[in-house]
Amino acid sequence: MRTRCSRAALALGGTLLAALPAVFAAAPPAPPAARFDSQPWLEDLAQIRTAVATRYANLAWQVSERGVDLSDLFARAQRRLEQATSEAEARAAIERLARSFGDGHVGVRWPRTPAVAAGADTRTVCERLGYDPAKAAGALGPHLAGYQPLSRGVGSEFPAGLLQVAARKVAILRIALFGPQTSPEVCASALQVVALAPEADCDDACADKVESAAYTILSRDLESRIRMLRKLGASVLLIDLTGNGGGSEWAEAAARMVSPLKLRSERRGFVRGEHWRNYWETLAQQLQAAAASASDEDRARLLGWLSEAERARTAADTPCPSEPLWSGRRLECEWLATAGYATGLLGEADAAALREKPWGASLFTPAEYEFTAQVWQGPLIVLVDGDTASAAEEFAAVLQDNRAAVILGAPTLGAGCGHTNGGTPTTLTHSGAILELPDCARLRADGSNEVGGIDPDVLVGFRSSDGLRRKALRLTAALPRATAAALQRCAAQRCASGNAGRRGNRT
Predict the structure, then answer these.
(1) Confidence of residue 505 (pLDDT cuts 50, 70, 90)
(2) What average pLDDT does the segment 446-464 reach?
(3) How high is the mean pLDDT of the chain?
(4) What pLDDT does residue 106 have?
(5) CA pair distance 22, 26, nearest whole angstrom
(6) Which pLDDT score, from 0 to 100, does residue 122 have?
(7) Which domains are delineated in the chain?
(8) What is the DSSP string of 450-505?
(9) Strands 160-165 and 267-271: what pairing?
């Protein structure tokens, strides 16, 4: 049907059409879109450059080992920021700069928008403290043909089982993280130890008590698991660290539990400046105060360690300008000062004896934990991959450097030492982001920096795209070689073979 318009309607339409140009002519022009201002971000970049030039432990290593052109790296970041058209692009430029260092402890944390309160937090203490079983995922043992798992129970935070390799029973034990945070059950047991209800409030001091109790349980459970595997006839122990992103200094205690040999830890390098100057100053004061009331024997030792702490403090106060590195030239000084070991001023010690001293853990960090040394005394294999990092690398490195274990797998991530005593964070003035740089380095027996990663003794061609089943197939092919190498190394080091090791001494 055809629609008709009346004369009046047509006349009105003509009037409106005639008025439209006048209406549009009278409307003000739309304001131009505001141009993104990159200048504040460039000022943040200048802050990052200053922090890297003065506080980054692995700066010299980046230039000498990785061949990084620092000036070009920052020039490219500057161009990206100058070309940025939004905050998202500016953030991406900063994040890309951080990733370019290839260092697992270099990162940027952006400020979060405060969450709107939705009522009282009904989570348990353990949930609030971050205990999450999802962190324990990734065990390879169950995906190996012929693997016989241990039943759950005491020590179930360490999945374990047995596998026949040639004529040997190989025990496979998973450590997913060097800390108790993979196990809510461990946390629940720790709450009982400290007499705290699951729904109670828990401040920082409370969290420390819970964590301390949890570490004691963790050490006890690891010991129990190893003894059970030994009782079942295991003659070789394989520790699975694939995907283990680190944890705490408990890694040094755990290494001493599974090592058939006494261990000396890696040397420690540290960034010169206020952060470490304060550390050594505080330690010197503690040692001086302890010496004043110590026995004659302890006083002599404490005064000797006091002298070492004072020398380290002087080294921290002695600057080493980084300017030559920015033009690819060698430094005329040592970028890192060195003193002590990854475990403190002492690289090896009787942890049990030191634990009885109020100053013991300040000198040797394993003394913080109650554990039994040399629970395992036979051939040892440590399995690693490209996601093994930080404290897990420390565990593997100390065992490899002391020839106490065969390292099996793929080269590790290369995170190395991280942040001590709160680290040296830099808050960027404009964005409010926090730049984190490692302030320490662990130096291997050959003098290399652990941040370069751990190279396995027996390589496995793990790929980042491999699932657990595919990784298990690759591991199966390499296990006979690794087992033979571990047996040979154990014989050369005269460690106990088979499952007839002595009961470990308390350390």
Answers:
(1) very low
(2) 97
(3) 91
(4) 97
(5) 6
(6) 87
(7) 39-109 (1.20.920.70), 121-257+374-416+453-507 (3.90.226)
(8) GGG-PPPSEE----TT--HHHHHHHHHHHHHHHHHHHHHHHHHTT---TT-PPPPP
(9) unpaired
